[in-house]
Design brief:
single chain; about 200 residues; mainly alpha; two-stranded antiparallel ribbon; 4 strands
């Protein structure tokens, strides 16, 4: 049921928002050149690597300079990128990932290989489901970039506080997931409702 829902809604969504996708792609191209999309290797279902899609919001090759953690005031973010990130418009191409079956609408956010490799023991249950666009950890840390910007050492805070808490939330999600629960997280995401444990 979940996969059928994901396929149907992502297909309809891509059709409905195609004008937004086209306009955004043109704006990225005009304001900061190519490539329009940012592709990054992420770990998906059963540890399979896939290419996560986003509209590019940072300078070209930003991942090769500076920290692996992005804060709200990161100088690598383009002016248009700030707008796209604020309203989560950079995430829209992930509907393609959902359509292809790389991702689901709801589930743990997919990690880059380095972080996913750190999952041990019971935490590896996270890799038994398709990663998602949203979920409890995503909702709790929807303002993650602002939170990290307020820390003296964003990398350390992410590694010692945020990431372990996300793993805990994602592990509990996988253990207790349900279709109705997924609908709740989707509605909370759409309407900007806060997440309470």
């Amino acid at each position: 049921m979940k996969r059928l829902f994901d396929f149907t809604i992502s297909l309809l969504g891509l059709v409905v928002i195609s004008p937004v996708l086209i306009i955004t792609a043109l704006l990225v191209k005009i304001t900061s050149g190519s490539p329009v999309f940012y592709k990054q290797a992420r770990v998906g279902l059963n540890g399979r690597i896939f290419q996560l899609l986003k509209f590019r919001t940072m300078i070209v090759n930003a991942d090769k300079t500076g920290s692996s953690v992005t804060t709200r005031h990161d100088p690598r973010i383009t002016p248009l990128g700030k707008f796209l990130r604020r309203f989560k418009l950079d995430e829209l191409p992930q509907l393609i990932n959902v359509l292809k079956g790389d991702m689901s609408f709801v589930g743990p956010r997919p990690d880059v290989p380095g972080f996913a490799d750190k999952l041990q023991g019971e935490d590896r249950i996270i890799l038994t489901v398709r990663p998602g666009i949203t979920g409890p950890a995503t909702l709790k840390y929807r303002n993650e970039e602002a939170l990290l910007a307020s820390q003296a050492d964003p990398d350390k805070y992410n590694a010692e506080v945020i990431y372990p808490d996300k793993v805990r939330l994602n592990r509990e999600y996988v253990k207790n997931q349900s279709f109705l629960g997924d609908m709740k997280y989707l509605l909370m995401t759409v309407f900007g409702r806060p997440f309470h444990e």
